[in-house]
Design brief:
- With 87 residues, the protein is an alpha+beta fold.
- The protein is 22% helix and 22% strand.
- The protein is built from one helix and four strands; from the N terminus they run ββββα.
- The longest helix has 19 residues.
- The radius of gyration is 14 Å and the shape is globular.
- The protein starts with 12 loop residues before the first strand and ends in a 13-residue tail after the last helix.
- The C terminus is likely disordered.
């Protein structure tokens, strides 16, 4: 059986603060912030949005999805996010 966490719209809410929600973009495996009032989204953490923890299993799933996205988007696996080699 596969015990690894997967990313799905049903479990992509990470945190809420005021009018904002921190969510996982299940296509890119990255966190974005959605304003419930204006329905606008941004990759940048809104001012005043507190730090929050993401479980290790969710981080692993996000990184795996990001790698799949990079490989699909770029076609070669090199390009978008290549600067992350030093992590």
């Amino acid at each position: 059986t596969n015990n690894r966490e997967t990313l799905s719209p049903a479990n992509n809410l990470l945190a809420e603060h005021g009018q904002y929600q921190a969510l996982i973009d299940t296509t890119r495996g990255r966190i974005y912030y959605h304003n419930k009032n204006t329905r606008e989204s941004t990759w940048e953490r809104p001012a005043g949005f507190p730090e929050f923890k993401v479980s290790a299993s969710k981080r692993v799933a996000m990184e795996a999805q990001f790698q799949r996205y990079v490989e699909w988007h770029d076609g070669s696996g090199v390009g978008v996010g290549a600067e992350r080699d030093g992590d």
